[in-house]
């Protein structure tokens, strides 16, 4: 909101750098120090008197433009279409199966087995349209970093009464996590959790928490059938947004599962 030309220029430069995902490494340190020095010069702040300013403002710069950079990184993944001819994409998909179903071998690339982990048809690639590669990255991170929790949730998805499509629900929750990030509601979580720059790993952790908690909430609601998904998801989203309004909010998957 500053009207000072130097501050405006500084802000615009930091925006450009973070939007292009170059706020990292040695560049990050140089930019942060440059921002501190610019503000101290313009505002006539004496670092010998206000020594805490250098530390506190530096952390603010890292958090604010780190969050903006994370937005750009997440958006790039969301816009990346799943490509069955891309070896890395296919490798991630097979890895997802291996993490969730370690004791069952796939019959082939296109098979009804995918429906067991919650994809709609025989070929999972069609389900990634809405959230692109981000949907797969989120599912794989949940299954990798929180393997026991993911297995726990997958077993619930096969409940004879309250079952649901694990992967499809997961992709819907990717959209929720992305929306909360885009709209800024998630800043509370990232600012309270990240020691320095918010990273994509932290976004995956945020997503994993949402998936784990949604599963718990879904079972608590005891839905009559899957047709209640939209209303329950909306109610869950409202609860999450309310929780994020708490300035001390830090989400974490249940410790008893998280540490297995």
UniProtKB/TrEMBL annotation:
Tell me where in this chain the ELMO domain is found: 88-244
- Domain of life, per the record? Eukaryota
InterPro entries, per database record: ELMO_dom (IPR006816), ELMO_domain-containing (IPR050868)
Q: Which Pfam family, any one, appears in the UniProt record?
A: ELMO_CED12
Task: Return one GO MF term.
Answer: GTPase activator activity
Q: What is this protein called?
A: ELMO CED12 domain containing protein
């Amino acid at each position: 909101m500053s009207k000072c030309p130097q501050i405006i220029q500084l802000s615009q430069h930091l925006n450009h750098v973070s939007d292009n995902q170059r706020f990292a490494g040695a560049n990050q340190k140089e930019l942060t120090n440059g921002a501190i020095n610019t503000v101290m010069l313009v505002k006539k702040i004496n670092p010998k008197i206000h020594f805490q300013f250098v530390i506190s403002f530096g952390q603010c710069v890292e958090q604010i433009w780190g969050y903006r950079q994370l937005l750009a990184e997440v958006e790039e993944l969301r816009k990346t279409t799943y490509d069955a001819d891309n070896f890395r994409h296919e490798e991630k998909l097979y890895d997802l199966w291996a993490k969730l179903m370690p004791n069952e071998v796939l019959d082939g690339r296109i098979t009804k087995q995918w429906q067991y982990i919650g994809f709609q048809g025989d070929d999972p690639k069609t389900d990634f349209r809405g959230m692109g590669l981000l949907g797969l990255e989120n599912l794989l991170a949940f299954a990798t970093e929180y393997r026991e929790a993911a297995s726990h949730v997958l077993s619930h998805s096969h409940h004879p009464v309250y079952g649901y499509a694990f992967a499809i629900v997961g992709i819907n929750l990717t959209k929720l996590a992305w929306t909360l990030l885009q709209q800024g509601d998630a800043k509370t979580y990232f600012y309270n959790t990240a020691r320095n720059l918010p990273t994509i790993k932290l976004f995956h952790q945020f997503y994993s928490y949402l998936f784990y908690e949604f599963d718990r909430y879904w079972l608590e609601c005891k839905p009559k059938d899957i047709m209640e998904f939209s209303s329950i998801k909306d109610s869950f989203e409202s609860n999450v947004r309310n929780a994020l309004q708490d300035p001390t909010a830090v989400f974490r998957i249940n410790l008893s599962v998280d540490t297995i």
